[in-house]
Design brief:
Blueprint: E1 6-7, E2 15-19, E3 22-27, E4 32-33, E5 37-41, E6 48-51, E7 70-78, E8 83-92, E9 95-96, E10 102-103, E11 108-116, E12 127-130, E13 137-140, E14 146-153, E15 162-171, E16 176-185, E17 194-201, E18 204-211, E19 219-225, E20 233-242, E21 252-261, E22 267-274, E23 288-296, E24 302-304, E25 322-325, E26 336-339, E27 348-349, E28 357-360, E29 372-377, E30 382-390, E31 398-407, E32 410-419, E33 423-431, E34 439-441, E35 445-446, E36 452-459, E37 462-469, E38 476-477, E39 482-483, E40 503-510, E41 517-527
Antiparallel strand pairs: 1-23, 2-3, 3-5, 4-26, 5-6, 7-8, 8-11, 9-10, 11-12, 13-14, 14-15, 15-16, 17-18, 18-19, 19-20, 21-22, 22-23, 23-24, 25-41, 26-29, 27-28, 28-41, 29-40, 30-36, 30-41, 31-32, 31-40, 32-33, 33-34, 33-35, 36-37, 37-38, 37-39
């Protein structure tokens, strides 16, 4: 029996594709490189990370993209011969003015298409499609024609910025959109209409969209038409799936959906959701992906199995991950990503010191261009991470260590640096989005030369750091308890996008521009059950 699981740690904005007995889900990666994350399954329940296809400079360059911009809402499809992947590279979300107000009317969204014969092979260089809005989706019709749909962005004053869904034909022969675009769906009163997908069934064209924004009002809307160009009539319930009026359900923020049919004729929906911290209302695991079986009614409309139109969880995956990364291979483990740059050799090396990940000190943590930060996604409310590092800074502009990171405005960073008064030391820098003091530092703790191990324990909203220097005994726990809930979409400054979820990893800075390196021998990540106090081991 296939159950309805949460797919923990999956990125958001899922698109699902079936080829034979194989299922693939593509999700957004935002400012993290390589771009687009594709998981594979044979049973819709057990999934493994397979590939990230946008890994060449000619395909993607995210340098300068703001936090939570970059790769949005990929749509993965197969036309019987090749895989097709369309996606947005969001270059500008808007600007934050003095006082925190958002002047977000002007935005830049560039939509592209790449193709491949095999899902884990080399994908083509991108074909530019348009820049009229975001969330593109490619539909392969039964007559062989291909159609692109995306939301339309209208920056004009007094207009609805989410102006609806536009349809435009794509010609593979021309490698471009042809003809004229047509507005086919203006959305419902809930507004913020985005994330379109088209399907054909029993002579109808079905259009699914997301509405209400990607927060608590999120919903899946459905409409249908006999003609692909419309007009489209709304589902009798308007919203096929939503938790916007049900604060009691465990999966909130449900929306941004896609459909797949199994060889047995079952219909399943993948969708974006969020699991708030108990009593805090913040989703530290970010926007995740869930999957749920649906049914077609006698009226030809789609419904949840129980007809309630709410997300259902039959099983929630228990923490089971325990991984030690030893950096012995020439390639970075697939769980890890880095920020923005398509030139990874400028920020890290796995060959400069065999058996180690060497990070070269680059720009400040939070830089939009070239910072040496390599991390993996946090996939459970309770987890541990640790690393062993060799690093000998000579002044205060050099730092390296273990970081719990959401973006440049939200992180906790346990790092080693050097000070002319106290010498080599360890301390935590926190950047706080919801505090009058934007950044905060703990008192420096002097440490002797030598290899150091750094550790973090996360229990829901509580976070603690520890360290130990080789030959100096057991763990020294910092006395401070840090707020892990700031590493969430909901902790924010006005006008800023927050889409990514929390990461944990390694970082190195050299603000003097000399590239001083830090060498990491291993990195350990474990998910676990709740533990109120850190263990002494």
């Amino acid at each position: 029996m296939i159950r309805n699981p949460i797919l923990p740690g999956f990125n958001p904005d899922p698109s699902i594709c079936r080829v034979g007995e194989d299922y693939y889900i593509a999700t957004s990666t935002f400012e993290w490189f390589p771009g687009v994350q594709i998981h594979h399954s044979r049973d819709l329940e057990n999934w493994s990370l397979l590939t990230r296809p946008l890994r060449r400079k000619s395909q993607l360059d995210l340098r300068g993209d703001p936090d939570s911009c970059g790769v949005w809402a990929p749509c993965l499809s197969h036309d019987g011969e090749r895989f097709h992947l369309v996606y947005t590279d969001a270059k500008r979300y808007g600007r934050t003015t003095v006082g925190g107000a958002s002047g977000a009317s002007l935005r830049d969204f560039h939509n592209y298409l790449v193709t491949a014969e095999t899902i884990d092979g080399d994908w083509s260089d991108p074909v530019p499609l348009n820049s009229s809005g975001f969330d593109p989706s490619l539909f392969h019709d039964e007559d062989g024609r291909k159609w692109l749909v995306n939301m339309l962005w209208d920056h004009r004053p007094g207009r609805n910025r989410f102006a609806g869904i536009v349809l435009h034909e794509y010609s593979p022969e021309a490698g471009a959109l042809v003809g004229t675009r047509k507005l086919i769906f203006e959305g419902t009163p809930l507004g913020l209409t985005e994330a379109p997908h088209l399907y054909r069934r029993d002579g109808w064209y079905y259009l699914i969209t997301a509405e209400g924004g990607t927060g608590w009002n999120h919903a899946v809307t459905m409409a249908r038409s006999r003609d692909i160009a419309g007009p489209y009539e709304l589902h009798p319930d308007m919203y096929v799936l939503s938790s916007r009026d049900r604060p009691d359900v465990p999966l909130q923020r449900a929306g941004h959906a896609d459909l797949i049919e199994t060889p047995q004729g079952e219909t399943w929906m993948v969708y974006l959701c969020g699991r708030p911290l108990p009593n805090r209302g913040r989703c530290v695991l970010g926007r995740e992906t869930a999957i749920q079986q649906m049914r077609w009614g006698e009226d030809g409309w789609l419904y949840t199995l129980d007809g309630e139109g709410i997300p259902v969880v039959e099983v929630e995956t228990e923490p089971s991950v325990s991984i030690r990364y030893d950096f012995d291979d020439p390639e970075l483990p697939i769980d890890f990503q880095w920020l923005r740059t398509p030139e990874p050799g400028a920020i890290f090396s796995l060959s400069a010191r065999p058996g180690h990940l060497r990070l070269y000190g680059r720009e400040t943590i939070g830089s939009l261009f070239s910072q040496a930060l390599v991390a993996r996604r946090q996939q459970a409310f309770c987890c541990s991470a640790a690393c062993a590092m060799d690093f000998d800074p000579v002044h205060f502009q050099q730092a390296a260590g273990l970081v719990c990171y959401y973006n440049g405005a939200k992180f906790h960073y346990l790092h080693v640096s050097n000070d002319e008064d106290i010498g080599r030391h360890v301390r935590v820098m926190s950047v706080l989005p919801d505090s009058p003091q934007a950044d905060a530092f703990t008192a420096p703790i002097p440490i002797p030369p030598g290899r150091i191990e750094l550790r973090v324990e996360v229990d829901y909203e509580r976070l603690r750091f520890a360290f130990r220097v080789e030959g100096q005994g057991g763990w020294t726990w910092l006395p401070e308890r840090f707020d892990a809930s700031i590493l969430s979409d909901e902790a924010t400054v006005p006008g800023a996008p927050n889409f990514t979820g929390a990461f944990v990893g390694m970082a190195c800075q050299d603000m003097a521009g000399t590239g001083a390196p830090a060498d990491f021998d291993w990195f350990d990540y474990r998910e676990r059950a709740y533990r109120a106090e850190p263990a002494a081991d």
